[in-house]
Design goal:
This protein is of the alpha+beta class. The chain has 33 helices and 27 strands. An eight-stranded mixed beta sheet has the order 2-1-19-20-18-21-17-16, sandwiched between helices. A six-stranded mixed beta sheet has the order 3-4-10-5-9-8, with helices on both faces. It has a six-stranded mixed beta sheet with strand order 24-25-23-26-22-27, with helices on both faces. Strand 6 and strand 7 form a beta hairpin. The longest helix has 19 residues.
Length: 953
């Protein structure tokens, strides 16, 4: 589904494989060194992974699992149904996913969009997903709103078909088809079809993608979808998990009240899926509009319930999942044949898919990489992993699992672990058994599994740059008039929606400030839910500090940070992080550059020591610079094939003006400048910007402040700055852009990305709460006018929206709408109309205002459920000059706002005539649609965008 929209305002975090990569630093005199503490044993980490639960089953077959977690007055509600794409018969592909969408369009006793009552109660983490093996629906709600959430979930489980009309079906079919076009429109977007077709026979239940085919979706009739519901959505085919501020004794009467009268349905049985083995190796080459050749190797392997599943998970991590994986070390770092390499295993119920891949470095013969990839895999199959590799996989995996326990719901919290085990293995504790099995792996068991499954013939797919072949699923559907879905009258057979009780106010943790010995300020808060410490070293730098004429310097500097220190080279650094189970990464937004640490608190001292080594004594090894530059250049080339990346590269100079430091937001930089950069350029940047007098350290931990401060003081307290500090200069007067349309020609695009932005008089340091409240109705929410227009009313888009890209010195308003290609011009007109109406004759209504304020205040507890949420809030408060208790008092700020105040703020901020529009799509199809826009249109090629944001030296 669709969530909040943002553009150019959020921290961008860089990942390498499974471990956050890099760290910013300043070359400085040596600091005191101490012996690195030994890492905590895996056995101790495994013991920390525990989700207590109680379970019961209703007479109608509904299985219920309850986990009690009193850290916050919220409850995660997660309903999993035993139906997925593998249940679909021939000619009905995509039905399970289509039905997931239909389940959000209201039920007989709760008609209308499902998101409306969820938002009104302050729900967070609400969504639905479909996989090969199941469909799930989930939301986290305040404890006082649990009755309403259970009513809604039970109503669509037992009372849905009367609310499904032909108009609703047609709308959601269009939405799903645009979701498919959006996926297909990405670089390498067609690869999934080739892999599935090559590995499976059409008769295998796993032999088609989850989203299905356009033709099958078009054939879905109203009788078909109602029959699908009857056959698969009974309570006896479902699992309900409640996790949070609830216990089984309290939960049982509530569940019986809302779900108990729903009748059993037919048993939903998943067809048996054999594990296919190819008779011989098969090689296939496909063309796509990509920047680099991608080489893949693919096998079908056993699923999650098989005894070899854990060994194959370790094998995938050692081969290509760790930052120090075999493929990355050899192909990327040592032999420099590829710019990226990895491996994965997707474990499903009856089988799994194992893949290995490499992105060929430009200029290298793909045949050489093909040969080496096969040789590395063959050697691994023959010899297996080392004991140290296995141990590093286990430590990293268990560490991340501990962190995942902090959330009760969402995509990966406690409710997910319990529901998955109950549905797939009839055991809520299946997650624990899988973890124990993983921890029991040895080099011998991993080698045996690899030899058994990866020595079989592979399906080898190579994606090469070139024009996409015509494919049926990309055809634009016939133009038909859209009939809006009528509101379904409430049947009222179950009474009104339950009332919501008094929702508890947010209890934001106390924020404390202190200073290290060298004056670096530490901002700290304590959360004791999980034994994890998260820290961010934040520098006053950001993209605005990038070097004019050498854009990409900041990113290349960050990418080089974990390539070596005086003590460790890049491979040794990656191995050290893995042994500790820590993630160290870099991030940036327009104003700040960050280095983050996430560590099991048992390894806090060792993790901080490693972080300090990277931050204070980087080596910037000359021997690695050429490789890392090639990787960044490959990333830039890939940006020029991505519709969203193209829009992000083009817009800033038109929005901010060439003199603004914010105009430097040009993706990964200028390829010519990056190619010419030297080690001296990187050292100069980090000496000027990534230094202790520009740093603050934000920490959230279960450990007390004194212990945390001592660990950082030991490693960072003697760190001194060297040389002159960098400065940023912003224009005194605001830039006034000339509204226009820039059309970026991207051939073979089944969708167009419509992006628009306009300057506002606001800055991030202003009080932006009034305009943020206003934007909730315009573009900031699923229920916003822009999204409801293009997605729900027109079904031209899978999701659209807008928001304020808030930076310290500017807060422009930006919108984004990926739309089907033949509706590009009409979609642009609709978005412009919505914006003009909102600040004109159709301002925010009382209903929209009340919904926003009520939802915002009620959702606060869920918004700050995890330590990561709090850490982000602490950084935002500091960045925008807000007091540390800003969120602790924000409820009163929301309630003090009035509709006239919010409406006036929106009118002052947003000028509909000031927008610049960047549209990325196939110019031959799109250009004629723009004639009626009344704006000058400039057509540029995607290749030319590489220099679109460059400033003169």
């Amino acid at each position: 589904m669709v969530g909040q929209y943002s553009l150019w305002g959020d921290i961008v975090v860089k990942f390498k494989a499974l471990v956050l990569a890099g760290a910013a630093c300043v070359v400085s005199p040596a600091v005191a060194q101490t012996a690195t503490p030994a890492p905590a044993p895996v056995s101790a980490l495994v013991k920390a992974v525990d989700i207590p639960y109680e379970q019961f089953t209703l007479p109608n077959g509904l299985r219920v699992v309850v986990n009690t977690d009193r850290k916050a007055p919220i409850v995660a509600v997660s309903v999993w149904y035993n139906v997925g794409s593998t249940f679909e018969p021939a000619g009905r592909t995509g039905f399970a996913h289509l039905f997931e969408h239909l389940m959000y369009n209201g039920s007989e006793n709760a008609p209308g969009d499902f998101f409306e009552p969820l938002k009104s109660v302050g729900a967070t983490d609400y969504n639905g997903t479909t996989s090969y093996d199941r469909t799930n629906y989930f939301e986290t709600v305040p404890r006082a709103a649990l009755d309403r959430a259970l009513f809604l979930e039970s109503d669509r489980m037992g009372y849905l078909t009367g609310a499904i009309t032909q108009a609703v079906l047609d709308e959601q079919r269009g939405v799903v088809q645009n979701e498919k076009r959006g996926n297909d429109n990405q670089p390498y977007g067609l690869l999934q079809y080739s892999i599935i077709d090559g590995l499976f026979a059409p008769t295998n239940p796993y032999g088609h993608t989850v989203i299905g085919s356009m033709a099958d979706l078009d054939r879905a009739s109203l009788a078909d979808v109602k029959g699908w519901f009857h056959d698969h959505y009974g309570p006896n085919n479902a699992v309900l998990v409640l996790a949070g501020d609830i216990d089984a004794k309290t939960a049982r009467p509530l569940v019986e009240k809302y779900f108990g009268r729903i009748a059993r349905g037919p048993v939903s049985t998943q067809p048996t899926a054999p594990i296919p083995t190819l008779p011989a190796r098969k090689d296939t080459t496909i063309q796509d509009r990509v920047a680099a050749t991608l080489i893949t190797r693919n096998w079908v392997v056993p699923g999650m319930r098989d005894k070899d599943a854990a060994a194959l998970q370790v094998a995938a991590s050692v081969l290509g999942g760790l930052a120090s994986s075999r493929l990355d070390n050899i192909l990327v770092k040592k032999e420099k044949l590829a710019v990226q390499a990895g491996a994965y295993v997707q474990s499903l119920t009856q089988l799994g898919m194992f893949g290995a891949n490499a992105v060929v470095r430009p200029g290298v013969d793909p045949a050489v990489v093909q040969k080496r990839l096969d040789e590395i895999i063959a050697d691994f199959v023959k010899t297996g992993p080392t004991a140290d590799e296995v141990e590093r996989v286990l430590t990293s995996t268990v560490s991340r699992r501990i962190g995942g326990l902090e959330s009760v719901g969402g995509f990966g919290g406690k409710a997910v672990a319990l529901a998955e085990g109950t549905l797939y293995a009839n055991d809520p504790a299946f997650y624990k058994k899988r973890l124990v099995a993983l921890a029991a792996q040895t080099p011998a068991t991993v080698r045996a599994a690899a030899q058994k499954w990866l020595s079989r013939p592979t399906y080898a797919v190579t994606v090469v740059p070139g024009a996409r072949p015509a494919y049926e699923e990309a055809k634009v559907p016939p133009k038909v008039a859209v009939v809006p879905a009528p509101e379904t009258p409430v049947k009222g057979t179950r009474g009104p929606l339950p009332a919501v009780g008094q929702v508890a106010d947010l209890s934001f943790p106390k924020v404390e400030r202190t200073k290290l010995s060298n004056g670096i300020e530490m901002i700290y808060a304590q959360r004791t839910t999980v034994p994890i410490t998260q820290a961010v070293v934040s520098f006053d730098a950001g993209i605005a500090a990038d070097v004019a004429g050498k854009l990409g310097t900041q990113q290349l500097t960050l990418e080089m940070m974990d390539e070596g220190t005086p003590k460790l080279d890049s491979i040794q650094l990656a191995e050290a992080k893995e042994r500790l189970g820590v993630d160290i990464g870099t991030g940036f937004n327009a104003d700040r550059t960050t280095i983050s640490l996430r560590a099991p608190s048992a390894n806090l001292a060792a993790g901080v020591d490693l972080l300090g080594d990277i931050v204070t004594t980087p080596a910037f090894p000359e021997a690695e610079l050429g490789r890392v530059k090639n990787q960044q250049l490959a990333g830039i080339a890939q940006e020029l094939t991505s519709p969203d990346a193209l829009a992000r590269r083009v817009m800033p100079k038109y929005l901010y003006g060439p003199a603004s430091p914010y105009a430097k937001q040009a993706g990964a930089g200028d390829p010519r400048a990056v190619a010419a950069m030297t080690r001296g350029d990187l050292v100069a940047f980090q000496q000027a910007w990534l230094r202790p007098d520009k740093a603050k350290i934000f920490v959230i931990s279960d450990r007390p402040l004194a212990e945390v401060k001592a660990a950082f003081d030991q490693r960072f307290g003697a760190w001194k700055a060297a040389g002159a500090a960098g400065t940023k200069s912003f224009p005194a007067s605001a830039f006034k852009p000339s509204p226009k349309i820039i059309l970026v020609d991207r051939p073979d695009s089944p969708q167009s990305v419509v992006a628009g932005a306009a300057p506002t008089p606001l800055k991030g340091t202003d009080d932006t709460l009034p305009v943020e409240v206003a934007n909730d109705a315009l573009g900031g929410d699923f229920l916003s006018r822009i999204n409801m227009n293009l997605r729900e009313d027109k079904h031209w888009s899978y999701g659209a929206g807008g928001g304020f890209a808030t930076n310290i010195h500017a807060a422009p308003y930006a919108v984004r709408a990926p739309v089907q290609a033949d509706k590009t011009g009409a979609s642009l007109a609709e978005v412009r109309s919505e914006i003009a109406g909102f600040v004109g004759t159709k301002p925010m209504t009382k209903t929209e205002f009340d919904r926003t304020i009520t939802g915002a205040t009620r959702s606060l507890v869920g918004d700050f459920e995890t330590s990561g949420d709090v850490l982000g809030g602490m950084q935002s408060n500091d960045r925008f000059g807000r007091p540390d208790d800003y969120y602790a008092t924000i409820t009163q700020k929301y309630r003090a706002l009035t509709l006239p105040q919010v409406d006036a703020a929106a009118k002052r901020a947003i000028d509909p005539k000031a927008f610049t529009w960047v549209i990325v799509g196939e110019a031959a199809k799109v250009r004629p649609q723009l004639d009626s826009a009344g704006l000058p249109v400039e057509v540029i090629s995607a290749a030319s965008v590489a220099g679109a944001n460059q400033e003169s030296k």
